[in-house]
Amino acid sequence: PTYNMAVNLVAQVGRTRAREVLEMSFAQFQADRGVVGLAREAKAHTEALEGYAKAMECHLGDFTEYAALRRRISDLEKAQRQDASRERRAETARALEQLRPGDVIQVKGGRRSGFAVVVQVGQTEGFAGPAPTVLGVDTRLRRLDARDLPGGIRTAGALALPKGFSARRPHARKDLAAALRRWLDERDPPARGKREPRGRQEHDDAEIAAARRALRAHPCHGCPDREDHARWAERWHKLDREHGALLRRIRGRTDSIARDFDRTCKVLARLGYLSPDREEVTEPGEVLRRVYAESDLLVAECLRRGVWEGLDAPALAGVVSAVVYEARREAAGAPHIPGGPSSALARALDETYRVFSELEDLETEQRLDVTGAVDPGIVEPVVRWAQGRGLDAVLRGGELAAGDFVRWCKQVIDLLDQLSIAAPTPRLRATASKAVGAVRRGVVAYSSL
């Protein structure tokens, strides 16, 4: 039973009667019956794992240990790349904020690489961040933001803009581009900026270096069939994770639903949604009764702690999207949060994740399925959509399909609708209602008809 279901059962019939009803439920019969097929699948997994383990055996040593070292290095390097990506993006945003009209910049890397002159600083609107307008040597105007600049920017100098310059006039753009080319031609090659060596490796931290030393020192490192063994080891590792998840499903099916109900009530009593004797629903529990999201307890805790108070409508829609969204695959880097790491939205997301971590520890302690994780993967497109941006601009540069975006927006609207009723303060209820209107527009509204 979900947390919402548990508090509603206690409120309607009491905990003792609710437990009896669950023990006699058809769902319990179906759960026990469904274990047979899962057990058959688990047996096939076990046989396959034995075959994979045999195939990856190495005469020089324990290849399972060697494969674990390889995975450890891969995980550490991935985390390092993600940290570096976040830092580069933050550094680029800071550099964009400092630009002034007439500054000559070099865009390093990416499809917009080259030299340009800043013609308009632009205003930082809401969560959009700095986005100056620049003119390149090809006379084309472009707006830059941190997402378009994977290699960052470098200020090469300054070029005086003609008095009364207007970027809207073609001949003015042409003259300024010519002046920029002359400015660059007059500079020595060093003033143009040195090209960074390609393939430059970032400095490894001590943990990665130690893991690599251990890998090279392992007996299996010198095996001529090492890569063949590694392929079998990767298959074994992937299937072993699937097998572990399957066994947990079997244990969850064979455990009594009533026993899970008891554990759920313990969590609710610990957090104050039920009375200490677990027989009565408290005031926070009444709020939880009106939240039907998959992450119902996470939402109720954020409401109770005031985590989302003070956000405007686009930001509230963004943080709600992080609660409902589940990525199909792991993202290559950390998603961009509109407004940067010090914005109200970023702080609300951090606090939401902190609440999730506390619930995760509590649920793990009670041997319950963990509440769905907070995933900020679509925060930026949802915020920009709620700010009134067009669909093309919202999805530009991302991998999210338009159909998937609309589908997730509907789930965001559903939870915002619940918040407009269940939120404990009038201000948050009003913001949730406003956010519903901001998201339910255009193609999202049309698809709901």
Can you characterise this structure?
The protein is mostly helical and 449 residues long. Among the domains are: 98-192, SH3 type barrels, CATH 2.30.30; 290-447, Orthogonal Bundle (Sec63 N-terminal domain-like fold). The chain has 18 helices and five strands. The protein has a five-stranded antiparallel β-sheet with strand order 4-3-2-1-5. Strand 3 and strand 4 (141-143) form a beta hairpin. The longest helix has 35 residues, at 63-97. The protein starts with a helix and ends with a helix. The model is unreliable at 190-203 (pLDDT under 50).
TL;DR of this structure?
The protein is mainly α. Among the domains are: 98-192, SH3 type barrels, CATH 2.30.30.30; 290-447, Sec63 N-terminal domain-like fold, CATH 1.10.3380.30.
Can you lay out the helices and strands and say which pair or pack?
Blueprint: H1 3-13, H2 15-23, H3 26-55, H4 63-97, E1 103-107, E2 114-120, E3 133-136, E4 141-143, E5 153-158, H5 170-185, H6 189-192, H7 206-217, H8 226-254, H9 257-271, H10 283-288, H11 296-305, H12 313-324, H13 344-365, H14 379-386, H15 391-395, H16 402-422, H17 426-439, H18 442-447
Antiparallel strand pairs: 1-2, 1-5, 2-3, 3-4
Helix pairs in contact: 1-2, 2-9, 3-8, 4-7, 11-13, 12-13, 12-14, 12-16, 12-17, 16-17
